[in-house]
Amino acid sequence: MSAHATNSMPDAISKAPPEEMVHIATDQWTQPFWDAAKQHKLVGAKCGNCGKFRLPPSPMCPKCHSQKIDWVNLSGEGSIYSYTIITRAMSPAVEPYIPYVPAVITLEGGGGTRLVSNIVGARVGDIAIGGKVRVIWEDHKDGMTVPHFELVPG
Amino acid sequence: MTIKDKTAIVGIGATPYTKRGQSAPQTMEELIAKAVLKAVDDAGLKITDVDGFAYFAGGHDTSLLTEILGIPEIRFTATLTGAGGGSAGALGLAASAIVGGLAKTVVVVCGVQQAVLRYGTYSSSHPADPYSSFYLYSGLVSPGQAFALLARRHMHLYGTTREQFAEVAMSTRLNALSNPAALMKKPMTKEDYFNAPMISDPHCLFDFCLETDGAVAAVVTSSERAKDLKQKPAYILASTHGGDGNWGRSLYWFNMPDDLFTSSGHNTVAKQLYEMAGVGPKDIDVAQIYDHFTSQVIMQLEDYGFCKRGEGGPFVASGAIRHKGGSIPVNTDGGQLSCAYIWGMSHVKEAVEQIRGTAVNQVKDAELCLVTGGPSNIPMSGLILRR
Q1: Of A27, A56, A86, which has the smallest distance from its Cβ to B200's Cβ?
Q2: Is B54 within a domain?
Q3: Which of A30, A90, A113 comes nearest B255 by C-beta?
Q4: Domain chopping of chain A, boundaries
Q5: Nearest CA distance, B156 vs chain A (angstrom)
Q6: Closest residue in A to B122 (Cα–Cα)
Q7: Closest to B91 measured CA to CA, from B233, B258, B204, B236
Q8: ipTM for the complex shown
Q9: HSE-up of A91 (CA within 13 Å, CB side)?
Q10: Sheet holding A53-54, edge to edge
Q11: Quick check: A89 contacting B, CB < 8 Å?
């Protein structure tokens, strides 16, 4: 099955969803991820004891229960695990942001962890599972920065 | 010791189902109270016999219901955690209370008014926390969008197609056409399906359940007592809830292993359910499968063993879930896709009617009916009723 064949709005360019959709909330365990994002760095939470990655970063390792975390700098590359093309706005305010493409990204060097994000600036018809992507950053007016991904050519 | 066969649903009651907002100016408490009274009356009992309530998905306020309905004493009141996944399991919760001797007559009730709270958009009702922030920023603001990611992966791994999703929508619509209580009255062709607006590719409008108002209540008591009551008992052969730890928050997490990512998360619940019941998928005569999205009906059919993993698409395309001629008729009242969406409780009502032999689209001589709770974060749940 070609995933391309089923993509709606194939010739549209994917947008970023409105930044007002959410104000990122943090706790002491997730804060370092968002702090790194402000520096435009993608980091992974690796257990300081057994080396297992987890996402989102939670208070303890589900495998060994250690609370030590090594924040590892990731390459920012990844591959598309799955995606959906939002072709209908859930409210009128979202209309100008259609289409946007939420995607689950398997992070390179992240021990198999996946990040939910968006594929932006891509021709929608070119988006497919397995496609290579690279992180780009969107600075929000509220001071937070979120990761998005662009398709890597070739 | 388990709850196997020790209790029965002896009464069922529902308000009329209406489109979102049309139950106004009735209040939520009013809808629930009306459904409870109908269910108690159906059972041939009095409201003063009720001594317990069991809920799911946040539940309702027992103290207020007691005040409104004039119930003399409450001996059990509890809610399954999670969301719509608990609908079938709430019957098991009621059964547990009765088998454990905590209460004698427990009512499971759920009401929905989607003009007040649209479950289709969870961000507006649940402000971002440190965990939800990790998916909400991507603009995934409704379960139908999030489950589209699972559907897309299922299509990728197994070749599942939108034509197969369409069959779920069309088969369910066909059942609604002959059910006077169902809201959707227009036949649906494959052309209609493919002309429907795309919402969150691969989910189009007809892959989504309805947005409706209404309330449904079920009265549960011991099997022994059930024999002497007004209705033919629908025995609770088994009910389980929970889920695989690796499924976890599922559509709010997206880090499940590949085989679970392309599932409904019902794998362990189904296994426990069949074990408790002592039956298998081949023994089930009719199934009420939680249909918030067509793609998740396909994945539940796989998880409950009606077909192999990945074969749910071709299975439904073969006509297997049709009321007429299907090997396992599914959502015989028109389901949540075409009858009404009461967070799974309309499925419980339809299951009781199938077991009593009084359903509008009756499956002949139905002895065992499966009911599933909504694929969501843990818990999922299952229920098998027997004649």
Answers
A1: A86
A2: yes
A3: A113
A4: 4-151
A5: 7
A6: A90
A7: B236
A8: 0.96
A9: 15
A10: A53-54, A43-47, A69-73
A11: no
| Domain containing residue B85 | 7-118+208-386
> Chain B within 8 Å of A45 (Cβ-Cβ)?
no
- Specify the number of domains making up chain B: 1
Task: Measure the N-to-C terminal CA separation of chain B; round to a whole number of Å.
Answer: 22
Q: Is residue B261 part of a domain?
A: yes
pLDDT, tens digit, for every residue of A10-43?
A: 999 999 999 988 889 999 999 999 999 999 999 9
* pLDDT surpassing 60 at residue B290: yes
Model-level pTM greater than 0.90? yes
Contact B264, B298 (CB under 8 A): no
Please state the rounded mean pLDDT for residues B236-257: 97
B142 to chain A, any CB pair closer than 8 A? The answer is yes
> Is A3's pLDDT higher than 50?
no
Q: Are B10 and B221 in contact (CB under 8 A)?
A: yes
Residue B349 belongs to a domain with what CATH number?
3.40.47.10
Residue B150 is assigned to a structural domain of this protein = no
For an interface test with B, the pick among A27, A84, A120 (most B C-beta atoms closer than 10 Å) comes out as A84
Q: Tens digits of per-residue pLDDT, B72-120?
A: 999 999 999 998 899 999 999 999 999 999 999 999 999 999 876 565 5
Residue B145 lies in a domain: no
Q: Give B-chain residues touching A91 at CB under 8 angstroms.
A: 121
B153 — contact with chain A (CB < 8 Å)?
A: yes
